[in-house]
Amino acid sequence: MNFSDLTFMQQALRLARLAEEKGEVPVGAVLVFQDEIVGEGWNQPIGLQDPTAHAEIMALRDASQALSNYRLPGTTLYVTLEPCLMCVGAMIHARIERLVFGAYDARAGAVESVFHVLDDSHLNHHIEYEGGVLSEKCSQLLKDFFQKRRQG
Q: Which member of 20, 24, 40, 56 is catalytic?
């Protein structure tokens, strides 16, 4: 973890808070190329009525449009929650270079918690990854969100 990782994860947290304001599960993501944000996303499956509108997918779509390419080599994806199977699959197809995530997802995490997809030697593309960056802040945001929902 380095200063850039913390800076970009803070931006992902800002987007997660935006998702929460819109009534979505607070997950945010930014995609970075050459130290610049080229894609942003936050959870939007409820608002868009689209089960694929996870923060990671939205950031990949945004970056693909910005870079005019469905392949995103040399990029790093920062996301506040460990990605699910769908999102990990999309990252592999997009050829991102590195993944940095915050909170671990004990129910659906496809990187370290439940599945270890990125460690599979059968894949045609390998992604470096690091989990736990600003994990307490990322986890607390999710815990607070779900606690409010249960009370409300």
A: 56
